[in-house]
Amino acid sequence: MNIILLGPPGAGKGTQAQRLVERHGMRQLSTGDMLRAAVKAETPVGLQAKAVMERGELVSDDIVSALIDAELAALDPAIGVIFDGYPRTAPQARSLDELLASHGRALDLVIELEVNEDALVERITGRFTCAGCGKGYHDTFERPAVDGVCDKCGSTEFKRRPDDNEETVRTRMVEYRAKTAPILPIYEARAIVRRVDGMADIDAVTAALERLIAG
Ligand code: AMP
């Protein structure tokens, strides 16, 4: 199965994608994660993307589509993919159609996580992850059982994304509304869009996603 998870920043796409990976052996392809890795490694793509990401604007379509192309080329077509944070513009949606076809895949579902935007700033500005295993936490909603120690791997190092500040989050939301939400009709015309209440608790959202995947 190949699925797109769509929703504004903070809707829970990354969290839910990680859970589906653990339960179904699918592969999460997050252009945000790929770009952050490129920034960290100071590759040419990373150097180009860094300032754009810090402002909360979108990196060029060609760059992100090339990243997805490389990942799909290296992946067994029998392994299902969850696209998280891609596509984000109409040209990216068109590229994805071409890339899927050229790698012997078809798009099965586009799942929109519906959220109340007012709640997103608090969700995003409070979030942090374990530097060791990547498990996500939140200052208010999901603290480690022992402060400063990761529940999953025991690491004592955590990190926060530089773009998870209020000003950048607002720009990211404007970008989502202006450029990403308008791609939904492309998929609605194919009758593959499903909606899930992204304001429900994390387990309930996962359960709803599981039902959609089970068909
Ligand atoms: P994310 O982790 O999905 O929230 O992405 C973080 C940032 O990376 C975004 O605010 C953009 O600057 C950039 N980015 C990630 N995915 C894309 C994409 N598909 N198209 C353009 N920019 C992207």
Order of helices and strands: EHEHHHEHEHEEEHHEH
Q: How are the strands ordered across the major sheet?
A: 2-3-1-4-8
Largest sheet: 5 strands, parallel
Contiguous helical run count: 9
Number of strands: 8
Q: What does it look like?
A:
The chain is α/β, with parallel strands linked by helices and 215 residues long. The chain has helices at residues 13-24, 31-41, 44-55, 61-73, 90-102, 117-125, 166-180, 184-188, 202-214, and strands at 2-6, 27-30, 81-84, 109-114, 127-130, 136-138, 158-159, 193-197. It has a 5-stranded parallel sheet. A 3-stranded antiparallel sheet has the order 6-5-7. Strand 5 and strand 6 (136-138) form a beta hairpin. Helix 4 (61-73) runs parallel beside helix 5 (90-102) and helix 6 (117-125) packs across helix 7. The chain is globular and about 45 Å long. Residues 9, 31-32, 35, 52-53, 56-59, 64, 85-86, 88, 92, 163, 172 line the site of adenosine monophosphate (AMP). Residues 9, 31-32, 35, 52-53, 56-59, 64, 85-86, 88, 92, 163, 172 line the site of adenosine monophosphate.
